[in-house]
Amino acid sequence: MATVDDRLPPGEDPTLLHEEVHDPRRRDFINIAAVSFAGVGAVAIVLPLVNQMNPSADVLAQSTTEIDISKIEPGQAVKSSFRKQPLFVRNLTPAEIAEANKVPVNSLRDPQTLAERTKPGKENWLITLGVCTHLGCVPLGAGEGENKGPFGGYFCPCHGSAYDTAARIRQGPAPRNLEVPPYNFNSDTVVTVG
Amino acid sequence: MSFPWAKQYEPKQPLMRWLDEKLPVPRLVYNAVGAGYPVPRNLNYFWNFGVLAGAALGIQIITGIVLAMHYAANAGVAFGSVEGIMRDVNAGWFLRYAHANGASMFLLVVYIHIARGLYYGSYKAPREMVWLLGVTIFLLMMATAFMGYVLPWGQMSFWGAQVITGFFSAIPLVGETIRIWLLGGYAPDNAALNRFFSLHYLLPFVTAGVIILHIWALHIPGSNNPTGVDVKGEQDTVPFHPYYTAKDAVGLGVFMLIFALLIFFSPNLLGHPDNYIEANPLSTPAHIVPEWYFLPFYAILKSFTADFILPAKLWGVLAMFGSILLLFFLPWLDSSPVRSANYRPKYRAFLIVLLFDVLLLGYVGGAEANARNVVLGQIGSAYYFLHFLVILPLVAASERPRPLPNSITEAVLEKHAGTSPAKTALAN
Q1: What are the residue ranges spanned by the domains of chain A?
Q2: What is the pLDDT tens value at each position of chain A, 194 positions in all?
């Protein structure tokens, strides 16, 4: 590091030697500025390294699914797949709808009515992800003859979460109702999920 | 570092002298695990397990590198490539069974190593850093073991990945985003499998690096011993080589015998048959359980069934991670100046209860979640935290320890000759 004792090079202005002492000094300022910019650069490089972990374009491209629901009888359900996750499409019977509407909403862990979880005029079509909101197992109850649990909806065999006929959490460790993905009825028989 | 009476490395051969001047690697080895490292003379066989853990890591790295030559980390072919290793690759079955059971052997010896540290107070001053690095190694091992179990892409692999990454979705607000970021998708798939393979290959080398720090930190105060009494002089120690290289070799022989029994006679004893079914994202196996070495922690996770301020799921995840992170604070939770449980009658009794508690949690973790087992798990989990957070500090404050020997040598002579200088002095 240069010191004030340094010999003045020939031709230099001697007043430069009597520069005022600033705090921070010019040298410190340049040092801090340079290192800060290197830091900003390093952070900028970290961004793509972190972002590469997010779902890639081909994974996102699978984010809509069309389902033909014309063959599903009342009381029946089918398993489909949406974003590589299981999707349950269930045609509720009038009894199941009545049972779901009978429950006082305020008594629920995740209060929602059946109407809020279905489309207007299509209250018999319950479309949810088949992913338990506890730790992600596939609940039973969509397949023929599977255990529907104590509330007649779905039952997760991993840690015993039980869902009712509106796929709302009623018992066990799961915190939320089975998720309703965004979907639209293209016609009375075709649904686009996503 | 080390004691003043440690033997010095003095190469006789001109070539070794030349090497010692340019790159003193033989000197480093001599001082670390050779005659240049003085070790207490009274170590028992529980002091084998550090070396055994190192050997197990070596076996995992060697078999793992070879397996990676035949394995394909793509969700479409991963399961088939593992079956190919089992059926077609020459000696592939042996390598895979050695790697799978090697993981169990590694965790087994590490659990005994940790239990040794708890019993003999090896986590206490001046060895706190050794303990902190050890808990770090344990965490790295757990992450590595989990990601390795995902690679065969069987049903347990897939659903294990789903459940474990599901832990992160318990974090309020950002949890689901973190889970999707970790998986690179909405459910475990090709992206997750590939990154797990990459990290599964990387982490053992990170572990090896932390092990070097662990040994370095150990060699500053030197090894603890069954009395927990500090080394007082040269008469208390023997050189690591040949005394403990020989003793460790005996233990290594027993380790290899048990390892061979597992590989050759019961290679799937510790595995789960569902993992020989290819991953199916639309069907969860009826009974998901992790590998045996995670069962106590899984039991703690399962023990939270009701919301209390926070959701039950978040409590479970916090408690499970907390049960391990708690160990980082152990050197400061136990304020007793006496290290070895041999001289701490109350602590010893409670430590034995803790051992049975962890075994109970292990049982509950693997059992069906019925009403009885949930209650057992809740009692077991509560006791685990009670031991570390309440019992341990209280015992340390109130216990009256038994009289300590004046030195390691005195303890050894008392044990083997039936007398001791102190006793003789008292008799006179």
Answers
A1: 21-51, 59-193
A2: 445 555 666 666 666 555 566 677 888 889 999 999 999 999 999 998 899 999 988 888 777 888 888 888 888 888 888 888 889 998 899 888 888 888 888 888 888 888 888 888 888 889 999 998 888 888 988 888 888 888 888 998 877 888 998 999 988 888 889 999 889 888 888 888 88
Which chain A residue's Cα is nearest to B177? A54
Catalytic residues of B: 219, 223, 247-248, 291
- Looking at the partner chain, which of A59, A86, A159 has a beta carbon nearest the beta carbon of B281? A86
Q: CB–CB of B181 and A54 under 8 A?
A: yes
Contacts of B356 (CB under 8 A, 6+ apart): none
> Running DSSP on this structure, what letter comes out for residue B342?
G
CB contact under 8 A, B312 and A173: yes
Residue that is written with structure tokens 């001109």 in the block: B14
Cβ separation of B181 and A172 shorter than 8 Å? no
Question: How many angstroms separate the CA of residue B336 from the nearest CA in chain A?
Answer: 40
d(CA A86, CA A78): 10
- Number of alpha helices (DSSP H) and beta strands (DSSP E) in chain B: 18, 2
Query: Residue A138 and residue A154: Cα distance in Å, rounded?
Result: 9
Minimal-distance CA residue of chain B relative to A83:
B186
CA distances to A182, B216, B263, B273, B291 from B157, rounded to whole Å, are: 30, 36, 21, 11, 10
| Phi-psi map region of A103: left, alpha, beta (phi>0 left; psi -120 to 50 alpha) | beta
Count of A-B CB contacts under 8 Å:
84
Residues of B in Cβ contact (< 8 Å) with A172: 305
Mutate which: A80, A158, A171, vs B, most B CBs within 10 A: A158
Task: Look at residue B362 and tell me whether its pLDDT is greater than 70.
Answer: yes
> Nearest C-alpha of chain B: how many angstroms from A82?
9
Per-residue pLDDT, A159: 79
Predicted confidence (pLDDT) per residue in B151-188, tens digit: 999 999 999 999 889 888 888 889 889 999 999 998 89
Nearest CA in chain A to B159: A137
Chain B residues whose beta carbon lies within 8 Å of the beta carbon of residue A107: none
- Alpha carbons A51 and A67: distance in angstroms, whole number: 32
B330-363 burial, b at 16+ Cβ within 10 Å, e below that, comes to bbebbebebbbbbbbebbeebbeebeebbebbbb
* Bridging pattern class, strands A85-91 and A125-129: antiparallel
Identity of the residue in B186, B191, B312 whose CB atom sits nearest the CB atom of A56: B191
Q: Which residues of chain A lie closer than 8 angstroms to B189, CB-CB?
A: 59, 84
- Hey, what are B137's tokens? 């190694």
Give a three-class secondary structure readout of B121-189.
CCCCCCCHHHHHHHHHHHHHHHHHHHHHHHCCCEHHHHHHHHHHHHHHHHCCCCHHHHHHHHHCCCCCC
Classify domain A59-193 at the CATH superfamily level: Rieske [2Fe-2S] iron-sulphur domain (2.102.10.10)
